[in-house]
């Protein structure tokens, strides 16, 4: 997975995956009963063509051999998405990991699966975007549908709008995409507002909560619990696929949401609980954005694996000394001593009431008004 590398000056540094894998090992999570580590396969062109156009796949292949060129029509060769040697195979391997996860769930070999190298949610059917070449999350959703799932819930809590995944399933009522993200008024890709609800015949299948720019923990948690459980229950999915980009963190250099790892962990638990309650636990979790590569990303995604594994690890768990020593030697920085940030994650339940003077509440209510009635829900009370 470390071959997915846009270069030394690019924010999407594969070191974040290396440090995550090492922290997982040092934490003992990979040695637990019931946990298997599976090398990701490389998705075939046929696999990729279920969610990407054939001309786009050809363009990625071509630029993998000619990385000095660019293809503006397909979004490759830009500052965000520079071409690099071996780009096709590296990107197809990230997608293969999520496809393998879908196969494992549908065959019954697993109930939960994590691909922390995945979550490339900006890639659209015929265009690269936002550091994403192939959309592994979309590919896994399509594989689930092709293997017998009737309805798939996709929950995206990355700081950026999950626009690529949404666009690929814009007209498909079998897929409910819910994205909670920093408002497009202040952050790439500039989309993801409450009135974006899905295409003709699939109205209500796209749900967007455009969070205030510096929302913080309490606002994010209030918004999630005011929207996601209600819609998930009405939709009744067979499988949950989630994207856990941790770039919402207050230390992330590219975003502004000011969220703690403690709040991210609460969302992981909430998504797991939805899967347990609604679809027999069937849950695929992916990574995504996250650019504080030593201080944030490894801790967040190690907690994600711990949640999926049912391990007794939480924000108050000490970070292994061996891993902290490794980070100090490799990067010259002191890693945090705990898995979390020690944050106060108290939040107001929606049942307390709607405050029209609160920017967050206005955002949430706009989303509820736009989509709740389409699912038989009352935006004021459900």
Automatic annotation (TrEMBL):
Q: Which UniProt keywords apply?
A: Acetoin catabolism
Q: Which CDD domains match?
A: HDAC_AcuC_like (cd09994)
Q: Which GO MF terms does the UniProt record name?
A: histone deacetylase activity
Instruction: Provide a GO biological process annotation.
Output: epigenetic regulation of gene expression
Q: Which residues form the Histone deacetylase domain?
A: 10-306
Tell me the route in metabolism or biology where this protein functions. Ketone degradation; acetoin degradation
Q: Which Pfam families match?
A: Hist_deacetyl (PF00850)
User: Record's superkingdom?
Assistant: Bacteria
Instruction: Give the family, as the similarity comment puts it.
Output: Belongs to the histone deacetylase family.
What this protein is called in its record is: Acetoin utilization protein AcuC
Q: Which organism is it from?
A: Arthrobacter bussei
């Amino acid at each position: 997975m470390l071959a997915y590398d846009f270069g030394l000056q690019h924010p999407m540094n594969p070191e974040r995956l290396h440090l995550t894998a090492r922290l997982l090992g040092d934490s003992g999570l990979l040695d637990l009963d019931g946990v298997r580590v599976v090398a990701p396969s490389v998705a075939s062109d046929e696999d990729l063509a279920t969610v990407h156009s054939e001309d786009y796949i050809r363009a990625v292949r071509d630029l993998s051999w000619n990385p000095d060129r660019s293809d503006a029509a397909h979004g490759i060769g830009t500052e965000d998405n520079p071409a690099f040697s071996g780009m096709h195979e590296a990107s197809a391997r990230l997608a293969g990991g999520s496809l393998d996860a879908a196969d494992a769930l549908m065959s019954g070999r697993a109930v939960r699966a994590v691909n922390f190298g995945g979550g490339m949610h900006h890639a659209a059917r015929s265009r690269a975007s936002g550091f994403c070449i192939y959309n592994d999350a979309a590919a896994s959703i399509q594989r689930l549908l092709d293997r017998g799932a009737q309805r798939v819930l996709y929950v995206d809590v990355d700081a950026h709008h999950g626009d690529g995944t949404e666009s690929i399933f814009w007209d498909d009522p079998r897929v409910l995409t819910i994205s909670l993200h920093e408002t497009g008024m202040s952050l790439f890709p500039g989309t993801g507002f409450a009135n974006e609800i899905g295409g003709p015949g699939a109205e209500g299948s796209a749900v967007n909560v455009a969070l205030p720019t510096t929302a913080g923990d309490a606002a994010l948690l209030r918004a999630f619990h005011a929207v996601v459980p209600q819609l998930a229950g009405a939709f009744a999915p067979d499988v949950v696929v989630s994207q856990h980009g941790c770039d919402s963190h207050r230390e992330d250099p590219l975003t502004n949401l000011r969220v703690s790892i403690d709040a991210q962990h609460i969302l992981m638990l909430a998504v797991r609980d939805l899967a347990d309650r609604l679809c027999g636990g069937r849950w695929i979790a992916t990574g995504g954005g996250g650019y504080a590569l030593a201080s944030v990303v490894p801790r967040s995604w190690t907690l994600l694996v711990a949640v999926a594994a049912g391990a007794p690890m939480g924000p108050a768990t000490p970070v292994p000394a061996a891993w902290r020593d490794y980070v100090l030697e490799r990067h010259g920085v002191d890693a945090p001593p705990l898995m979390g940030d020690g944050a106060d994650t108290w939040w107001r339940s929606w049942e307390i009431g709607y405050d029209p003077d609160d920017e967050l509440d206005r955002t949430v209510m706009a989303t509820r008004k736009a989509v709740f009635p389409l699912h038989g829900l009352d935006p004021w009370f459900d």
